[in-house]
Amino acid sequence: MLGEVLVESEKRPSEPPVFARTGIRVQASLPADQTPEQLAESISARVLEAVPTSALVLQAFTPDSPAGNRMADEADALLEAVRARLPPERLLEETWRAREAGATLVELCVAPGVVLVGSVPAREALSLSPGGRQRMRRSADSPSRAAMKLEEALVNLPFEPGRGEVCVDLGAAPGGWTQRLVARGARVIAVDPAKLMPELARQPRVEHIQESAFAYAPEEPADWLFCDMAWRPIEVAQLLAKWGRRGWASHLVANIKLPMKDKNPILVRVRHILTQEGGWQGLTMRQLYHDRDEVTVTAHKVT
C-alpha cells in the first residue's frame, strides 16, 4: 500500500536510524474513503485522546513518490480541517520551539487509500519538518547545492558557529560551506588545493590554505571542523579521527560519501573510527533530506 516509503521499526531503536527521515508512533490507520469532515473529526478526537495535555505541533505529509506528491493539496486541506477542530491554545505555531517547550509532534501521513495518524515527543523526533523533509532554500550566489546540506545539518544542532569563532573547512573549494559559515560571522580556514570562488578569496575572514586536507595541520585548535570531501569514506573517517585524537577542534560536522551499494558495514566502521579512535562524543549519523549517497555526521569533544 505504501511501498518502500514507510517501514515498521523495532520497538525502541538504541540509536536513531541513519536512513530514516522521520519516525512516529502510529495511533490510527484510517481509510481514506470517508469525507474530509469525517476524517478530520476522527483524527482530532484521536489526537486529543492520545495527547491530553502537552502543546501540539500538527503537520501533514505525503509519501515521497509520484502518487504521494499528487496528494499534497489533499494533505494540506486535511491538516487545516483537523487544526480547526483542536483547541487553539494547544497548538504551537513556532515549530522551532517544540523541543524546549516539551511539545508533541503530531503527523498525518496522507497516502493513497489511507491516512496514518501518529505522534512523537518533539525531543525524541528525528526531524521537526513534515515527513522529515527539511527543505532548504539555495541562495542565488551559492556555488553549489552543497550549501543546503550544511544549512540542514546546522538547523538540527542545538547551536551553530557564531561570530568570531574559528572554523576549518576541509575540502572547501569552490566554497559552498565556507560561504555559509562566513555569513554567520565566523572566521574560516578553507583547506583545498583548488581555488575558491573569487568573492570568497577576497573575504577578510577567509584564509585559504592551498594544500591537501590530509596534509594540513592547524597552528592552533579550532572551534569547529567541517568536511565535505568526495573521497573514500574510511580514509575521511581516519582523517576526522586524527583531528579528534589530537584535540584540533571542539565540534564536528562532516559529510561521508557512500557510493557503494552495501552502506551499513561502512557506517559501522566509520562510527568505530570516529568514536573509539578519534574520541568524538555525542556522535550522530543521519542521511538528511538534501543528502544523496552520503550521510551527515555531527559530534563534539568534551573540554
TrEMBL record:
Family matches, as SUPFAM superfamilies: S-adenosyl-L-methionine-dependent methyltransferases (SSF53335)
A UniProt-annotated Pfam family: FtsJ
Limits of the Ribosomal RNA methyltransferase FtsJ domain: 144-230
GO biological process terms held by the UniProt record: methylation
Listed InterPro entries: RNA_MeTrfase_FtsJ_dom, SAM-dependent_MTases_sf
Keywords noted in UniProt: Methyltransferase, Transferase
GO MF: methyltransferase activity
Superkingdom of origin: Bacteria
Protein name: 23S rRNA (Cytidine2498-2'-O)-methyltransferase
